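Review form for a predicted model. The reviewer records the input and the model, then writes brief findings.
Reviewer: anonymous (R2)
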Amino acid sequence: MKKKLLIVALLLLSAFAADAQVSSPGGYDWRDSSVVPPARMEQHFEFMNNQYNFPAQPRSQWELGIKLGAPTVSGDVDASFPGFGFGLHARKALGYVLSVRGEYTYGNARGVGPTHIAVRPILNPAWESRYPGGNFYYNYKTSVHEFSLQGVVNLNNISFHRAEPKVLLHAIFGAGFLLYDTKIDAQNAAGAGYAFAPGMTKGVVRGLLDGTYETNATTSGSRLKPTTTFGLGASFKVSNKVNVSLENRFVMTRDDLMDGVKYYYATPAGSNAAVPIVSNRNDLYNFLSFGVNINLF
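Model under review:
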């Protein structure tokens, strides 16, 4: 039992030590003396000659990354996949397991339908001004600038006295803020509403739209929102300096208007008037990405 407790304590101390000389975000080879700082070179040589039990910790390392993304909004309107986005990040290791990352992403996400709105869209002036009697399908395009500070936890790097594996799995958590701007395509090039009809598929609706997104969507005020984020990813080591990554990250806001829609409408029995009912959850922003990352000493 004491041995188990000692092993756990050593794992935690090594993973989260405040020592500035820690491992890289993207992986290293413990046999490579170029990653070892001069102050620890003696330990490195002793380890290589079987005179010391553990390899020297490598110097602290930064990672710079660029990524292409496919953002989507999970809300009251069906998302159209894929959207387009990109991102940049800088990451610094704090230990064998934990690193911190500052990230900026930009994304364009779209959606359409699927429900035909047959009644007056009360409390949604962006649509009510063009379709006061209903007969339309929701659509939107939202542009998102997102900034976050994240913790990145290596999930399969616990055996940290070995060279890091070719594939690293990691979890992401953090917080930040985003600024979004949502517009809708409510009219054609002639300035008239579209000839929507009940029963149209999303493909038919998309075929009617001219893609200008000329009308500002309904908003509840400021579009600058605090966020929390979490996700999972995998990085694949290409060389000692370069790795590629695949990540899927969710961004939560306390906002239900990223897709321009907050209400759905019910018509009570015996009444011809629609009653707006607020949706029961906020919108969720998702950023799926593929990135190329360079490790710097």
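Findings: Residues 1-23 have pLDDT under 50 and may be disordered.
Further findings: The helical segments are 2-16, 41-48, 125-128, 202-208.
Recommendation: see findings above.
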